[in-house]
Structures are given as structure tokens and as C-alpha cells.
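Troubleshooting entry. The earlier prediction with uridine-5'-diphosphate-glucuronic acid gave an output that would not parse, so I re-checked the input for stray whitespace and re-submitted. Clean input:
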Amino acid sequence: PADRLPRITVFGTGYLGATHAVAMAQLGFDVTGVDTDLAKVEALAAGKVPFYEPGLPELLEATLATGRLRFTTDAATAVANAEVHFVCVGTPQMKTSHAADLRFVEAATTAVARAMTHDGVIVGKSTVPVGTAARLREIVAREVAPGVAAELVWNPEFLREGKAVDDTLHPDRVVVGGASPAAEALLRTVYAQPIAEGSPFVVTDLPTAELVKVSANAFLATKISFVNAIAQVCEAAGADVTVLADAIGHDVRIGRQFLDAGLGFGGGCLPKDIRALMHRAGELGAHRAVALMQQVDEINMGQRAAVVDHAVEACGGSVLNRRIGVLGAAFKPHTDDVRDSPALNVAAALHLRGAQVTVYDPQAGDTARATFPSLTYATSAEEAVEGTDVVLLLTEWEEFLRADPTQLAERTRTPRLIDARGKLDTDAWRAAGWTTRTLGRAA
Ligand code: UGA
């Protein structure tokens, strides 16, 4: 029965926290989502997800209707009514360095510890540099009221944007670090369904749990930069990186996923996580890790520069006053997130060089406009390619893969395409009159 299940708070209602709160309510728990941002809280309480995430609005509506889920800015009441407190706030990159900004994690942990009126477990989910959880334990010990037992454990999250609901309900693994037997039992109850479905439950110490998360993202980033480095060799040697990736991917030790060459990785996680790892590894004297992550970052940023160069070349050496159509603004399909988006980055770089850049994205138009108001935004692919000298495919939305190249060609000044994601059927585009260039294939 619901009254015997542990009651849950979730601090932070961004991509991670909102999804986690809704998923926990879906699993039958009583959940309160807490945020300092009143607008977010009001939106979620009214059944509106403040960002684009497929499947989440429907599940939010359904779980709100059960009465098991609510959102508030009142941390004290929420904490007083629960036993398990998830910390899901952001850890963005510092403006002045590669380090992670831990202000929000510290503030949320402090708020929970201060508000605890009875025993409970604080569960860190945010991505943090190794060693953070140990420091947060000191904060908890200092802030919690005498007689209240507050235990802090680490339980990293691996969800992908665009697949957040599914990843949260059916995780590849559950990792719990630094838990006492009682806290471990509590988390086994919280994750009973995924465990029953076969998700491995990995028990570790605190620093290992923190590092598992960072290493997973660093490995994914390394895979992408590896294939992008090979793509450069392919271009020079007249080989095809997509066929190559398929072929090496058949080896189960390698695996095909995350071997799509092209514009590289962006978003709110991979770029800042490898930089935070660089910074922390440096502090710890782990110089080989620093060197590896530096190369991964450099190769990745080099892909963006390469696409800008291709566009300049396509325009005959200068993009000044040339019309460029950009398809895609989100850092990947199925999201409206433009944080560190390679697509927007390239669009902005071309704009700075004097090009007239028109961007279209099926979902991220508004977030992109808010980030880069000086670019021109279209409401369709047709509109974006109108009168252009070159068209860039920068985010591989299905809508673009299905687009009719003949119709689009008619709208351009010169039907010239750069496929920076290697996903278009360029034979079909060529047959429709386009000249095409794909990253990772010979010109
Ligand atoms: C990433 C991880 O995949 C999640 O497991 C993790 O939980 C999350 O970060 C996080 O730390 O919160 P996400 O940022 O949603 O998830 O995006 P990914 O799907 O990993 O894609 C990252 C970037 O890599 C995108 O820009 C994508 O276009 C690019 N990418 C991906 C490639 O360039 N090539 C590929 O083969 C795959």
C-alpha cells in the first residue's frame, strides 16, 4: 500500500528532476517536486512541462491526476513529509574555468538538511566532480538538527534527453554509492521495479559512484571524437566513415552506437562533463586523463570549425552577404535544448562572418531565438532554404531526412548541401540537382 512506501522529494525540476519526479510518481510513490523557480513550479503543477521531452507531458498529466505528485517552492513542508530526498539540480560549467559550478547542489543539500524533522536519506543525482559528495556530507552533518539521522548517498542518473522517460523507468543500471545497509534497502525499494525487470543494482563507495557517471559520459564523448578523428582520415583518403563505422561496429567489443561521425557532441552534459573531468583530474594529478579529455574536446570543437570552413569554401572563399540556410538548432533531435549546441554554434559563427543565416528547427526555434536573437528564424525548411547559396544539415531531425530534395532545390539560389550529420541520402539529393558534401567522405 502507498502509505508504507517511502515518500519522496525531488529538488530541482529541470530535465533530470522533473522526469525523475514524474517517473517516481508513476511507480506508485508519493512525490513532491521542489524548485526555487516559481514559474517552473506553477507550470508543472498545471500540467505543463517547461521544455520539450517526448512522452513527459502525458505522464505528468496522468500522475498529477493520481494525487501522488505535486510541485512546490516550499522546501520545508516537502521535506518534513518525506524520507527520501533526491538532489537533481544542475552543475553547469563555471563562466571563468572548466570547473563545475556546485552552488546549486550545495544550496539544495543545505536546504534539505536544514528542513529535515525526522530521519531520512539524501540521494545525490546531479553530475558532480569526484569528492563533492564527501564535502556535502560535511554540510549535512553541520546543518541537520540534533537527533535527526540524515544519510547522504550517491545515485547518478544516466538518462538521455529525448528518451528521458524510458531511460528513467528502465535504466541500464542503478548505481548507489556510500549507502549504509538501511539506506541501500530503502533505495532497493525505490528502484524495485527496474531491479525486478533486470536492471543491475551496483553498490559502490561514494567516489566510485560519482566517477561512474562522469566516466560514462567521458567514454561516450571519446567514442564520438574517435570516429570524428577517423572521419578526417576518411575524407583525405577517399574512404567512407559511415560504412567504416558500420563495419567496425559489428564487433561487439566496439559496438555501433555513438559512432556517428559529423558535427560532434553538444548539449548540457557531455561538453561540460569532460571539461569538469579535465579540471578535477588535473587537481588530482591524473595527467593522462587530462590529456585524453583535452584531445576529445579539441577534436570535437574542430568538427564545428570544419563545417564553417566547408561552408566558406562552398561560397567561394567568403560567406559575406551570402544566404545560408541552416536545418537544425537543437544539439540533437527530439529536444528543444540548445545548450552548447554545435548547430547554433556553426550558425552563429557564419553570421559573425557576415553571412545572412536563416535557421529552422522543428522544436528548438524559440529556445534558439532566446539564445541567439540576431539570427533569422524560419518556420519551415522550405522557408529556411529560400534564395540560399548553401544549405547546412546540422541536426538530423526525421523531418529533414524525409524532406523532398526536388522541392527544396527549387527554393534555393544554388542547390548546394553540406550534410554535417552524414544522415541524408545524398544520392537522392544529387539526383534532384544538388551538389553535396558530407563530413567524413571525400569531397
Ligand atoms: C548524455 C548521455 O548520453 C546520458 O547517458 C547522460 O545521462 C546525459 O548526457 C547526462 O549526463 O545527463 P544527452 O546529453 O541527452 O545524454 O545526449 P546524447 O544522446 O548523449 O548526445 C550527445 C551529443 O552527441 C549530441 O550532440 C549528439 O548529436 C552527439 N552524438 C551522439 C554524435 O555526434 N554522434 C553519435 O554517434 C552520437
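This one parsed fine. The chain has two domains: 2-203, 205-443.
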